[in-house]
Amino acid sequence: MTGLPVAPSPPGQGLAGWALPLALAFLLAGAALPLGACDDTLMTLLTASDPKSEFSRGIRQFNRDLTGLGTALKERRDTEVEGLLGKVMESWLQLSNRFSISPPDEARGDPGWAAKMQDTATRIGSIRKAIQAGETFQAHNEVLALSNHLGNFFDSVKMSESYRLFLRMSDLFFQLEQLSPAGDPQAMRPVVASLTGFLRDLEPRLASEARPPYRAAVATLDALDATLASQTTSQAVRAGLIQNAKDDYLSLRSRILMMEWFPAVQPPGGSR
Fold first, then answer.
1. pTM of this prediction?
2. pLDDT, tens digit (0-9, with 9 covering 90-100), for 95-120
3. Domain range holding 96?
């Protein structure tokens, strides 16, 4: 059985044609990075159709700045937050000045473009207000929400079915993180079921090398669902199980992408 088709063959010839897959390889090597809505690897995939365009480079920089701010808020590195917020505002200002009125070629046919740009600006203002008020937890949650919102900019962009699936999976994990502190396990179970359903839909298209991480990802989601069904777990336990599920999903996604870009290379560990 052939591997899951994730992307077209790398464009171009020679070293230039391998620029994107090599960039992905470096990102995938850091698969332990947290999955925070549009993580670096996902953003690279979403901009893969024209990675060197002004918009692609700008949105990736904005996402990196946003991730840096979110990490600082999560780790309570309070002395760094103001400077990182400034970087977020600066990178967004550059994007906004260039594309608020005239969408990039990738989204030329998107009728909701102006509203998405305005919504992003409003969200940044809300994050700034929360930081100035010392509401670190609220600011962090709003950064996560904004990072998740960035996927909306690609609604009109042509991309493979697999990229769309990765984007949807990212959104579902974000929903789990948002629901967990509320302490309502039953509200989380449909989200877990959706994640599991997406993974099971992948199974017939997976090559043998991707089966071990696939089985691990499904098993951790099943364990999370069983724990939620018991309704006896603490928020800390739920958060740990969600993190385990995200880590296993990232491992599967990395394996799929590495097999797509470097099909002749046997992944570490092989199949079993």
1. 0.68
2. 999 998 888 887 888 889 999 999 99
3. 49-158
Of the three residues 128, 158, 188, the one that is the final residue of a domain is 158
| pLDDT given at position 197 | 92
Token pair for residue 56? 């692609």
Question: Which residues, in sequence order, are CB contacts of 22 under 8 Å at separation 6+?
Answer: none
What confidence score (pLDDT) does residue 102 get?
86
- 151 and 200 both lie in a single domain: no
pLDDT, tens only, 204-248: 888 888 889 999 999 999 999 998 888 777 778 888 888 899 899
Secondary structure string (H, E, C) spanning the chain: CCCCCCCCCCCCCHHHHCHHHHHHHHHHHCCCCCCCCCCHHHHHHHCCCCCCCHHHHHHHHHHHHHHHHHHHHHCCCHHHHHHHHHHHHHHHHHHHHHHCCCCCHHHCCCCCHHHHHHHHHHHHHHHHHHHHCCCHHHHHHHHHHHHHHHHHHHCCCCCCHHHHHHHHHHHHHHHHHHHHHHCCHHHHHHHHHHHHHHHHHHHHHCCHHHHHHHHHHHHHHHHHHHHHHHCCCCHHHHHHHHHHHHHHHHHHHHHHHHHHHCCCCCCCCCCC
Q: What is the mean pLDDT of residues 55-77?
A: 91
